[in-house]
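Give me the fold.
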Amino acid sequence: MGQEFSRSSRVLSENQVGLAQHTTGSRRKVFNGSNRCSDDPQHPWRVGFNVLARFRNRLVLAIPGHLGSSPPISCRCYDSSVRPLASALILIALSHFGASAATIEEVLAVVGDTPILVSDLALAAAVEIVPRDDQEVDATFHERVLDSLIRLELQYQDLEASASLDRLEIESEPLARTMYTRCATDGSLHSELQELGLLSSDVESLAHRVAAVTAYVDQRLLPRISVSFQELESAYRELIQDPITAVGEEPPPLVSVRERLADVVTERKLNAEIERWLEQARERLEVTRFRR
């Protein structure tokens, strides 16, 4: 648990979409799929995949839409007792779905039980959840966006697990409005996003996730941080005194730059707290990242 694995890219077929489990409601309606297969909980295929879902913390399963050019199945079991049942269910699924089912969504990564899809990446890139550098090529930018989505999902799921969401003051509406200005025109999402099946509720869900994580950082992590005078002196020597003295200049006195230095030290310590939080989340949630 807690490790990040990289594998060949996998896709969900049209039939598989209806059976996928997703815990975040409207964020990925395509995964609910009530119109794609039986809603009967006793439907034979739904029963089989519901059983399989119980082991998803120990089994990562991805079935390609077209077998032949891709490895037939990417499957890793962490408990030997899971393997016979999982293998049987995979074979049943393949025999039922067939090897040439049409591809609906490509899964780029899985955090815990939650997939990150191509459409998620497209939306996050459109609203620029991370700023795009000048002259940055699409491939590099999209890799950074995917990194950020994985981090965001780790942090958000950790907040869910710790029941912290109910104790935070989350203001997502202003962020959602900002996102809309980047991905919509006259109230409608850009056509390339609509073609991926994205809805306004997906924008709101992404905004809520980002706002929740930001609220936790501002309301829980930041108040824990204090800056000592010794830390200010150390930062003054590192960032101001030594570099300026090295070029023969006279550095400004500490008192004149104290507030700005305090901000720098606070930001450093806050970033360290965020990274510790992220590492703790990684220990509890497995991240699987697929190569494209």
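The mean pLDDT is 74.
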